[in-house]
Amino acid sequence: MKITNKINLTLSSLIDLIYPKHCEICTIDLNTKEQFICLGCKYDLPYINQSKQTLETLGKLFWGRVEVENVLALLNYQKGNQTQKILHQLKYHNKKKLATYFGEMIGELVHNPKEIDYLIPVPLHPKKKRIRGFNQSTVIANGIYTTTNIPILEHAMIRNTFNTSQTKFSKFDRWDNVKRIFTVTKPELLRNKHIILIDDVLTTGATIEACVQELIKVEGCKVTIAVMAARI
What we know:
- With about 230 residues, the protein is of the alpha/beta class.
- It has 2 domains: about 1-45, no CATH class; about 45-230, 3-Layer(aba) Sandwich (Rossmann fold).
- The protein is built from 9 helices and 6 strands, in the order αααβααβααβαββαβ.
- Helix 5 (about 95-105) crosses helix 7.
């Protein structure tokens, strides 16, 4: 076993020497112990403080709109910062392994995984999924599953309307753009369950709010939100 591990390590080092991996943020070559981003960039990322006060601030984003149990977010999102660059790489350059990597980190924020029944990624419309090739929320959920072992329930909710990108919409236009676009298809699976709803980024919260509105129509369904990044 030790000899096999040494051989695998030698092969990995040789591959890295011939085909060096680059940091997804600053593009420098990674060493054999680094994954996707270098230690310097990982250290400098704008992490969200996980204090009680910060968690309350995140929760307040939904006050008076929909009832959620908790809101978990890993990184602070601001226009032009490193988080925005990472999200762009994730969404538009097929960086699925990077999404899984950050999903694993998000999973560490879930303090009581045994109290959660399912992970539910915010669904993409099938047409958009075909265009992009994957649902980034599902890939993030895969990472959270790796850390928590909470099962993923991907088809309990569908997106039944194809919407254009919301990046240039105003706050109120975003809310109007996502009204009634989600449908819970398997409410019997969600009855009296506590689920974590997963998305990549929380800005106005319009898309997530539209999802939660449908989920909490199911008897006894409680929702915690987990995102890779949030604007606070």
